[in-house]
Amino acid sequence: MPAITTRVDINSDRYRTNASAMAAVLEEFEREMGKSRSGGGPKYIELHRSRGKLLVRERIELLVDRDSPFLELSALAAWGTEFPTGANVVTGIGVINGVECVISAHDPTMQAGASNPYSLAKSLRAQDIALENRLPLVNLVESGGADLPNQSEVFLNGGKWFRNLTNMSKQGIPTIAIVFGNSTAGGAYVPGMCDYAVMVKERAKVFLGGPPLVKMATGEESTDEELGGAEMHSRVSGLSDYFAQDEYDALRIGREIVGHLNWRKAGPGPSRQSRPPLYDPEEILGIVSSDLKVPFDMREILARVVDASEVDEYKQLYGQSLLTGWAHIHGYPVGVLANQSGVLFSEEAKKATEFIQLSNKYDLPLIFIHNTTGYMVGKEYEQQGIIKDGAKMVNAVANSEVPHIVLMAGSSYGAGNYGMAGKAFRPRFVFGWPNHKVAVMGAEQLAGVMDIITRAGMERRGLEVNEEALEAQKDVIRQQILREEVAYFSTARVKDDGLIDPRDTRDAFGMALSAVHSGPVKGTAAFGVFRM
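^ that's the sequence the OP posted. Answer follows.
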């Protein structure tokens, strides 16, 4: 494949302006990530340690292989809400005894690890990733159960957690529960429904109802250990499969369980040896426009992401606002679709449709990199068939069966989000840079549309427009979109799998590609009817 020749001038004013703006974005990003990593704060961390317990990230570090990477998911869930940033749980993909696994771990320093609407969404997303990519799931359990003041938003949807566990078991995807503390009421079914349950001596408490509830319901006097202690479940009930002496022993046992699974990937491995890009990923910071209204060259981004900076472009001279081509990332072959400028025309839609079909014939995962304002509008383009051509692209994306991995690198507005395999089209992974924006359209565009609609309505009724009131209404809409289009708003609501530093893009892609190859990677020739 031909290597991309960079045209970036790192000494130019534009490069320096972009790099300075991105540095400020990343400084804010690190501050917000720090909130997620800090758990419940010094007071509750000290209380947790005083009980001789490991912190959640220490548990994960001891569970995964030494010096192996951990791809944390949805780290900023619940950002900007009444709940703690991180949503009381840590999820991600790590390597345990050489096997890639999804890890879902309660953080008991955050509201006792209780499950609120955001932690439920985050945990369910981790389960979906395990199911879709055929990855073993390891649960590190210590939770106070449902956040009772918000039970109406947790209880009914929470049943999906248990349904997923049984579905994974049915499909032969191993599930493991390591219980460090409370796992009560509905939470007791986590070890109950997992294939393997490990319980820590004198710490694990697994029961449907604790001593006070049993006293109220039956009048029976009992202790925590008699009702649901690790030794009772290991010797009497049989719910516990492994009796751990302490947390370190429990994590050792968890590693040994994964080790004896004899787990094999169902997809192919890398097709060639990984080769680093020719150019420094640090330079991505000066390439991405500080103003997303200004396009930036995706070839320059790919030159710092793909193996040896090599991309075999498909239809390079046709539909040039969408780059399509084949490349390798950490040795894995991929097809790439990347927006070169904001607008998608008919040419780009038809080009993408063909490219997606070809990639499915070759069983190649697809990488979608977003920076689009959507499909082109206007009389000329409507008459040329932009709706039909856009529908072809959406049809191809919706019916494609190879894994899709999405990166929100810039703007992602309107139907362009759909055509580029947005969240609604169930990509295997969605990552975002902290500068990206996503909405039905930009704030000024939406305010302008509302202005036109309101004026037309008033005119039809023969009424005079109150300019001051209309401007106030537009400003409310404008401020709403400006608040909701930012990357933090969507990632807080688990509309993606986490924000990443642009310099880490290659490795995030590489870990995601390795994960999707844990299951079969197979395309399709079956698509819906393409409108002519």
